[in-house]
Amino acid sequence: MDRIVIAGGKPLRGKVQISGSKNATLPLMAAALLANSPSVIRNVPELRDVQYMADCLRSLGADVEYGDHMLRIDPRGFSISEAPYDIVRKMRASIYVMGPMLARLRRARVSLPGGCAIGSRPIDLHLKGFEELGARINLEHGDVIAEVERLRGKEFNLSGAAGSSVGATCNVAMAATLAEGTTVIHGPAREPEVVELLGFLSRMGARIEIIRGRSLRITGVEGLDGADHTVLSDRIEAGTFMTAAAITRGDIMIEYACVDHMEAVIGKLREIGVCLDEMHEGIRVRGDVEEYHPTTIQTWTYPGFPTDLQAQFMALLSVVPGQSLIREGIYVDRFLHAAELIRMGADIRVLSGSATIQGVDHLGGAPVMASDLRASAALVVAGLAAEGTTLINRVYHIDRGYEFMERKLQQLGADVARITDNEPDEAAVASA
Predict the structure, then answer these.
(1) Averaged confidence pLDDT in the chain
(2) Which pLDDT value is given to residue 431?
């Protein structure tokens, strides 16, 4: 089982290139199943989650070629309407295949999805949207079964108690592209990754309008063609490197960062006291300032502060003088990383969807355990600034969402290495 070891205390300096977005790539891959001909997707990150999705598409009959940051997906063999549990359990995003299954095959059987241990992540809004389009939904032995004679467009609201859902918006929009008539979705997610998918679908021949920035109108068509698309850069990876630069008091140039998509993140960093210079090639982040200041963060749907950067900011705020507060508005239980940061000397109190962080003078290296993808990134960020050595276990989480993370950190001067031993990870064995 691989682990990452970090000898902290070195300011990061230099340039780092941000990879293509994982959260954009996965729905694009599923959308390729809607077409009658092959699609090519470029700037694809080399990640475990992308490989999992490729395996999922292959299990449904599609031909998938993946290499050199490019995917070629030929959906002409797509004929299987059941996604196997052994693949779906590894990654929540496998649920994206339900929309294309219903649209093309009129039937879908998908295991309830797995993924990160960050609390309840129901798919009720996905199922609500499919039902609005005419699908019949049943749950049987841990599987979701959806069937329909013909998807039919309808006007409905798709927002939930925690705001809009990226996954549900993507899934239902994909299904609606081949539905009969017109679908109007009120309360859709507006994340850049959703807009990316809508652009890809439009390039494939879908008829999609964004109404006053708040609703989607999708007019169904008879068929879609494959398209050639380049994935936008990963704003969550960019934000992670921003926190790494800030916590180490470093000075790095983050190339290919989509600063237009990161206003909430950039605003909070500036509020803390980090110096950021927006440039044509990306953004320069400097932590070599006199003093940092505490802040309050409320995660919410875009354009609010992203929940996927909450853990990394908690690591940063652990060494910011004064008391900071983080309220988690999307996944109220997403604080498993707090216990591991406390092991490193952080002063954090978690209660009812909020975390109070009292800044300490420094963190200390310790053996820690990653509970999910973004928690693992937070532990790396903390380890970069900690005194002594940090050993991070379960780094397979990092490989799900960060391309060559330790290699990029090494290029910035970090003392970080990946080690492999023969000791099995108990959680991985239990889930096998």
Answers:
(1) 93
(2) 36
pTM tops 0.85, yes or no: yes
Residues in contact with 122: Cβ distance below 8 Å, sequence separation at least 6, in sequence order:
none
**Domains of the chain (ranges, CATH numbers):** 2-19+233-431 (3.65.10.10), 22-230 (3.65.10.10)
Q: What is the dihedral of CA 335, 259, 287, 380, to 10 degrees?
A: 40
Least confident of 117-121, 304-308, 340-344, 422-426: 117-121
Q: Kindly state the DSSP code that residue 82 receives in the 8-state scheme.
A: E
Summarize pLDDT for 215-273 with one digit per residue, the tens.
999 999 999 999 999 999 999 999 999 999 999 999 999 999 999 999 999 999 999 99
Instruction: Collect all residues with Cβ–Cβ distance below 8 Å to 278 and sequence separation of at least 6.
Output: 259, 266
User: What is the distance between the alpha carbons of residues 399 and 385, in angstroms, rounded to a whole number?
Assistant: 21
Strands (E), 39-187: 39-42, 63-67, 70-74, 82-83, 107-111, 136-140, 143-147, 155-157, 182-186
Q: How many CB atoms sit inside 10 A of residue 44's CB?
A: 26
Please tell me the total number of residues recorded for the chain in this structure.
432
More confident of the two residues 177 and 111:
177
Phi-psi group of 230: left, alpha or beta (phi > 0 → left; psi -120 to 50 → alpha; rest → beta): beta
Average pLDDT over residues 118-132: 80
Active-site entry in 116, 170, 258, 275: 116
What tokens does 270 get?
A: 């500036």
- 360 exposed, middle or buried (CB, 10 Å; 0-12, 13-18, 19+)? middle
The answer on pLDDT for 366 being more than 90 is yes
DSSP 89: T
Q: How many CA atoms, within 13 angstroms, populate the side-chain half-sphere of residue 256?
A: 13
Tally of helices (H runs) and strands (E runs) in the chain: 15, 24
Q: Listing from the earlier edge strand, what are the strands of the sheet with 415-420?
A: 367-369, 389-393, 2-7, 415-420
Which tokens sit at 91?
Answer: 């990654």
Q: Are 255 and 14 in contact (CB under 8 A)?
A: no
pLDDT category at 114 given cuts 50, 70, 90 is: low
What percent of the chain lies above the pLDDT cut of 90? 84
Could you give phi then psi for residue 15, rounded to 5 degrees?
A: -120, 145
Catalytic site residue 56?
A: no
